[in-house]
Amino acid sequence: MSASTSPPGSAGETVPGQGPQILPRLLLLLGLLYVFLISIKLLSGSIKMMGAGVADGLFEGVSNPFASLAVGILATVLVQSSSVTTSTIVGLVGSGTIGVAAAVPMIMGANLGTTITNTLVSLGSVGRKSEFRRAFAAATVHDFFNLLAVFVFLPIQLWTGFLHKSAHAITGMLGEWGIIGEAGGSYKSPIKAAVSWAAGGVKHFVTETIGLEGTPAGLTVLSIGLIAIFFSLTTITKTMRVVIADKAEETLNKALKKSGLIAIALGAMVTMAVQSSSITTSLLVPLCAGGILSLENAFPVMLGANLGTTITAFIASLATDVAGLEIALVHVQFNLLATGLFFPFQRIRAIPIRLARMLAVQAVRNKIWVIIYVVIVFIVIPLTLMYIFK
Fold first, then answer.
1. CA atoms of 111 and 296, how far apart (whole Å)
2. Which residue has the higher pLDDT, 248 or 32?
3. Which of 171, 174, 251, 304 would suit a FRET pair with 346, their CA atoms being 20 to 30 Å apart?
4. Residue 120 — very low, low, confident or very high, per pLDDT cuts 50/70/90?
5. Quick check: 227 and 46 in contact, CB under 8 A?
6. Who wins on pLDDT, 206 or 57?
7. Helical axes 82-94 vs 65-79, angle rounded to 10°
8. What pLDDT score was predicted for residue 185?
């Protein structure tokens, strides 16, 4: 057999997308992921620059559970981070400003509010129909999961108080066993530190070098963050399609499909590393958009992200008093119960996936559905609840 009949990839040949080309693309991908993380950080930072204390002020004087739920949603939408919202709630509960029972709906609302980041991320694919359909479904499946979890567990909580009562019982046992100490616990993420350093440099440039302050500075940082998100995600999607070959896609999907527990653990570990469920779930959007990861296999990773963000908050709460620890435990229990309800049963697990796909089809047909969805779920409903019940 002549040398000309040698198969692709044999010695002396380079297959497109492999060999010497793969390392630069991997490095580019890592760089783009870093830019993406920075852009998410800039979004939350810009809101704080425009109105420091706005989110904190929402929590004052809220007693009705439905108004509390709305406050949790709106506060998280404002700061673009459920971790920031839950940390604020833990602090307010620890100081006695809010009771544990009153704070439970706020925690549920924080879970809902953080999912708006995914929807913003999915807009990076809005110009490509098939890609946008997959991206928008991946973004909203997390929303539907959290909405359904609230619909199930909030009425039970209002009727029985089981979440805050069980959290109180657990903290009592931890105290008896001597696990709750004075020093508490904390975790400093090196990834978060690197992202915060870069985002701080951008803010310093806007405020010190350019000389902007207040709302103009916040809007400028917000614009930079949005541009960075769309640029990084568009390029990430294209690069991933090259770096992750078809066989790798098949292997990834098979591995996650074979064991959903592995997918949940993966989501939890990544979230603990970056200390943000929004970042973990948002990273899944371009993977699904490019067809690299199926929605069914991405969903348990999102469930893991929900669990991961509560574990981080729980560790941090060990440094607070008992009331702060109780509300952190409520967050852990709520997400554990929601995962336990949806994940083990295929028919129940399929509900948020089916709803997300149906909404994505409508969004592709008419982009106005995206605006209607965001405005109604994250603005109209919370403001209506606050107006009626506060």
1. 21
2. 32
3. 251
4. confident
5. no
6. 206
7. 130
8. 45
Residue in 39, 33, 31, 80 with CA at minimum distance from that of residue 223: 39
Query: 95 pLDDT exceeds 60?
Result: yes
State pLDDT tens for residues 135-180.
999 999 988 999 999 999 999 999 999 998 998 888 888 766 655 5
Q: Quick check: 298 and 145 in contact, CB under 8 A?
A: no
- In three-state form (DSSP H/G/I as H, E/B as E, the rest C), the secondary structure along the chain is CCHHHCCCCCCCCCCCCCHHHHHHHHHHHHHHHHHHHHHHHHHHHHHHHHCCCHHHHHCCCCCCHHHHHHHHHHHHHHHCCHHHHHHHHHHHHHCCCCCHHHHHHHHHHHHHHCCHHHHHHHHHHCCCHHHHHHHHHHHHHHHHHHHHHHHHHHHHHHHHCHHHHHHHHHHHHHHHCCCCCCCCCCCCCHHHHHHHHHHHHHHHHHHHHCCCCHHHHHHHHHHHHHHHHHHHHHHHHHHHHHHCCHHHHHHHHHHHHHCHHHHHHHHHHHHHHHCCHHHHHHHHHHHHHCCCCCHHHHHHHHHHHHHHHHHHHHHHHCCCCHHHHHHHHHHHHHHHHHHHHHCCCHHHHHHHHHHHHHHHHHHHHCCHHHHHHHHHHHHHHHHHHHHHHC
Give the Cα-Cα-Cα angle 280, 77, 322 (nearest 5 degrees).
80
Q: What pTM was estimated for this model as a whole? A: 0.71
**Residues whose CB is less than 8 angstroms from the CB of residue 246 and which lie 6 or more positions away in sequence, other chains included:** none
Query: Using alpha carbons only, how large is the chain's radius of gyration in Å?
Result: 22
The mean pLDDT of 248-268, rounded to a whole number, is 73
The tokens describing 304, both together, are 């893991």
- Residue-range domain boundaries for the chain: 23-389
Give the pLDDT of residue 180: 56
Q: Are 60 and 287 a contacting pair, CB within 8 Å?
A: no
Contact between 70 and 109 (Cβ < 8 Å): yes
